Amino acid sequence: MRRRLPALLFTGLTCLAAALWFFPIYWALVTSLKPEFDVVQPGVALLPQHPTLDAYSYVFTHTAILHWYLNSTGTSVTVTLLVLCLSSACAYALSQLRFHGQYLLYGVILASFMVPVQALIVTHFVLMNSFGLIDTWLGVILPQLVVPVTVIVYKQFFDQIPKEFREAALLDGATEFQIFSRIYLPMNWGVTTALAIITFIGAWNNFLWPFLVSNSNASMTVTVGITQVHENFGVQYARNLAGAVIAALPVAIAYLLFQRRVTEAIMLSAGIKG
């Protein structure tokens, strides 16, 4: 029994931490199902006394939620595809090719971890404004394409592939692009899938940059759009949280469906940063 006591203690602490983490999500879901009158009542009601879908109905009928969803889907998918294509190609060049400035370039990529993304916001905004890309999909997408961790992860896995594969392909007359696309990428589909999922989730959840660069529904993503769910008569908590639940739903579904891959990607990223 004494040997099992530490395990029981850690299990209890884990359950407590999970409950504390999940409670805000539960509270948002419950609040979104309440009439606004019940939301502002004093006291704590863990279950809605008069459950209703009025808040969700308002979000779908009085906002551009579907257009925001389209923008989020389009920008997130584009960011994911471009990040994977650019990062994998860059990693292959750093891993398998030899050129002047190779180590300097890789050092710059590694050093980029020391620069927080928020520190580049002003520079990104000035550049996008100079290019006339404010309030456009391209303006939302371009600054999100710089993801050094995907380059480093790909390079580490490419380094582990035996050199004989590339040498044999070169002797058979294969080009570098054919070697990259037909040998190195297929050998790392698991890594590509994991990175694709976590990149998509990060692009979908991104708020700060789309919030700064989007001024209208033409480019506004769902994470920014839900901040527009308000009235002239004050804050409507149920409607705001209904919008938040709708915005988070695709990411929650993606995580539940690809939980193992997401965990692998997080471990890969954490291992690189560590």
Describe the structure.
There is one protein chain. The protein has helices at residues 4-32, 36-39, 54-62, 65-96, 102-111, 121-130, 137-141, 148-159, 163-171, 176-184, 189-205, 208-213, 222-225, 237-257, 259-273. 70% of the residues lie in helices and 0% in strands. The longest helix has 32 residues, at 65-96. The protein has a single domain, classed as MetI-like fold, CATH 1.10.3720. The radius of gyration is 23 Å and the shape is globular. The mean pLDDT is 85. Helix 4 (65-96) packs across helix 11 (189-205) and helix 11 (189-205) crosses helix 15 (259-273). The two termini are 37 Å apart.
Tell me what the CATH architecture is: Orthogonal Bundle
Instruction: Determine the mean pLDDT.
Output: 85
How many strands, which pairing sense, and closed or not: the largest β-sheet? Answer: none
- Percent of residues in β-strands: under 5%
Number of helical regions: 15
N- to C-terminal separation? Answer: 37 Å
Task: Please outline the helices and strands.
Layout: H1 4-32, H2 36-39, H3 54-62, H4 65-96, H5 102-111, H6 121-130, H7 137-141, H8 148-159, H9 163-171, H10 176-184, H11 189-205, H12 208-213, H13 222-225, H14 237-257, H15 259-273
Keywords:
mainly alpha; 274 residues; 0% strand; single chain
Short summary:
The chain has 274 residues and is mainly α. The protein is built from 15 helices and no strands.
